[in-house]
Each structure stands twice: as C-alpha cells, then as structure tokens.
Amino acid sequence: PKQNVNVNTIQMKSYACQRRTPLKHHNSHLTEALEVLSENAAYGENEGRSVAFRRAASVLKALPYRVQTMDELKCLPCLGDHSQRVIKEILEDGTSREVESMRQSEQFQAMKALTGIFGVGVRTADRWFREGLRSPSDLIRTGQQLNREQQAGVLYYDELNKPVTKHEADLIGDIVKEAVSAVLPGAEIQLMGGFRRGKELGHDVDFLITHPEEGKEEELMPKIISWLEERDLLLYQKTTRNSYLEKKDAPGRPPNNMDRFERCFSIFKLQGHAETTGSDGVRPSNQSEASYWRAVRVDLVVSPYSQFAFATLGWTGSKLFERDLRRWAGQEKHMSLSSHALYDSVQRCYVRAQSEEEIFEYLGLEFIPPCERNA
Ligand code: DGT
Ligand code: MG
User: Fold this and answer.
1) I need a surface site. Which of 63, 101, 125, 187 has the fewest CB within 10 A?
2) CATH number of domain containing 78
3) Where residue 143 sits, what CATH number does that domain have?
4) ∠ at Cα 173 (167, 178), nearest 5°?
5) Residues near ligand 1 with C-beta < 6 Å?
C-alpha cells in the first residue's frame, strides 16, 4: 500500500492524543525493539528515557506504511538519536545487536520475571535482583518476606502471566454485571482498558461502574465484593475507598496520575471455561468440573455519574495516550485533566461533560475513538 502514500506529505502530530493509532500497524519489527529499550529504562527507574523510547515507538505505530529507509523518518517527531540509531540498525541488518543483547541479559530477564509478579514494582524487583534473586521460585526458596498481594502474585504467577482473552473478559463481564445488578439495580457497567480499545488479549480486565442517580454508587464496592466472595469467585481483593474531593484535589496542583475512585484490585477465580479444555474440546481427565478454574486479574472502579465521562476517558488508555492528553491539556490549553474532572485555569472553573466527545471538544482536539487510542 506504500505506493499510495507520499511519505513527504505525512503530517505526524507530536502529541499521541492528536494522532490515530490503530491496534494493528505496519512497524512492529521496529516498535518491539524500541519498547525493549523503554522497558529497560523503566527497570533502571529512568522514567524520562523510558517514555522517550515509548513515544518513538508510538509515532511508528501511527504510520500508514512500513518504514524501509531512514529518509522516510526525516519529518517525524519524537525520534531521538538513540531511537534512530536502533531503527537504522534494524533496517540495515534486520536486527539490533544492542536490543538483542539487552533482551538476553540476565538483569533484563530477571527484572521482567520479578516485576511480572502481581504487587511487585521496579524498586522491590531491583533490590531482589541485587540480592541475587532471579525468579518467583527464588523468592519461595529463600523464604522472602512477601505482603498479601505479592503472596497471591507468586501463588498464581503462571496463570496471571498468561494473557486474558476477550472471551474470558466477557465471561467476567457477565459475572460482574450479575453482581452489580443484584446489589444495586440500575447500575451501569462498562468494559475499559485494552479491551475497550479492541485488543484481543490483555494482562487484566478493567471495569468502570456507575449509577445514573448520583450518590447511589457510594460504598458500592464492599457490596459487590461480598456478593462475589459469598459465591467463592475471588482469590484476592484489596479495596480502596473513594478519596476524591474537588476542592482539595484539582486546581493549582499538578494533575495527579493516581486517581481516587473507590477501586478494587482483585484476582478472580474464573470457573470452568474453554481455555483449559484441550484442543479437542475435551477436559483434561485430572480435573473435575468443580476444580476447574483459572486466576484472572480484574480491576473494578466505581465512579459517580457526574465524573463518568472523565473516568471513561481516563480508564480507556493507552497509558501513553492518557499521558499525552494530560500533557496537551496542561501545556497547550492551561487546563488540568484527571480521571475525575477538567479544570480550566484561565477561566478558573471546572468543565462539566457528559461524554468523551465533549471532553475532546473542550480540549480543542479531534475526537479519537477508543480503537484508535492504541498509542
Ligand atoms: P493491558 O491490561 O495490559 O492489556 O492494557 P491496558 O491498556 O488495559 O492497561 P491497564 O489495565 O494497566 O490500564 C488500563 C487503563 O486504565 C490505562 O490505559 C490507564 C488507566 N489506569 C490504570 N491504572 C490507573 C490509575 O491508577 N489511575 C488512572 N487514572 N488510570 C489508570
Ligand atoms: Mg487492562
């Protein structure tokens, strides 16, 4: 399709929220390498560097053709020297030695394995690495002190690292719907995160819950959790309460990345589903129907109706798209955007919105549908 695209007329905008980024693109041979560099920088707690590589990858995801020569990159934003060097290497040799040796390195692999444990961040993983630990089994063998979250993370490590399918996400959606409508009739639930952007696989399943009558959603989470626990559907859960106060949280302060909704990090026990049957559709003989389940990470978020549009926008992702929305709002529009609200620092007022479309419009951005937010 390249013949139809004049590479010199492509106007690549520099904020991810100004671009359309489809899920399937033409440059994964380059973006995967750049994302290894980004991941590695994150393991070294170099956030700026990590984001820079992620931005470079993201620009290539938005290109409507497969890059063949360095010449085609001339007019593109966000491609630093290091990214360009790596791209050049891949275009010339098919692979980047720097990236490949990084991928193979003991440190990279150990950090990937350790941060892949639910409840383990870069700091903890790095400390363990320096103590000589490399994998979840090393943690068990050496009897490391683990918190409740990490214990669950180690216990269900293999299953939680197996991608969740859209089908499994829908099965969990049905359960959450049943729970929510049992404890609060009229409540609405929406699938968020990667699955809302059209992904077929995810690392978890994200849901946003609200009720059209403001206030009805208060203290909803504990009721949902009890309903699920009574039916033995949860392996782990940690609920945090809503701590959002408009007066305290938004104006003047830099927009805070962590939001303050009532929220539950959980691990679901997903009963007898197709994934664990063999390719012939026959269940392995060692598992009875009752013991037939897998662990799946699920995030539940409850939002008041008046904040629902902001919560929807904030929980759809991708992470880079969200980051650039906030950066755009702050740098270009003197506004502060969070998953709760939009504050206009020039007009000194909060902006109300009923839909994502209205928020884009207020930000002076063309509306980008969820399936094109895969930045
Ligand atoms: P996945 O799950 O790896 O397939 O991909 P995503 O895009 O679903 O990523 P995930 O589940 O980590 O997060 C979903 C979106 O929700 C993400 O794009 C940004 C947003 N998000 C996640 N955690 C937070 C949070 O603590 N605060 C806010 N405001 N947003 C968050
Ligand atoms: Mg997700």
Assistant:
1) 101
2) 1.10.150.110
3) 1.10.150.20
4) 135
5) 193-194, 199, 202-204, 206, 258-259, 314-315, 317-319, 322, 339
How many domains would you assign to the chain? 4
* pLDDT at residue 101, rounded to an integer: 98
| ipTM of the complex model | 0.95
Structural domain boundaries, residue 75: 2-102
204 and 144 in a common domain: no
Q: What are 122's two structure tokens?
A: 């870069």
Q: Cα 27 from chain centroid?
A: 21
Q: Verify whether residue 206 is a known catalytic residue.
A: yes
Q: Please tell me the predicted confidence (pLDDT) of residue 284.
A: 53
123 and 212 in a single domain? The answer is: no
Ligand 1 atom at minimum distance from 204 CA = 2
Take residue 316 and report the two structure tokens written for it.
């759809």
Determine the Cα–Cα distance for residues 78 and 52; give it in Å rounded to an integer: 7
pLDDT tier, 368 (very low <50, low <70, confident <90, very high otherwise): very high
Last residue within a domain, chosen from 57, 87, 102? 102
Q: Are residues 207 and 301 in the same domain?
A: yes
Does the annotation count 324 as an active-site position?
no
Answer yes or no: is pLDDT of 54 > 50: yes
As a whole number of angstroms, the distance between CA 336 and CA 326 comes to: 7
Domain shared by 295 and 234, yes or no: yes
| 204 catalytically annotated | yes
Pairwise CA distance, residues 299 & 234, whole Å: 12
CA distance 190 to 96: 41
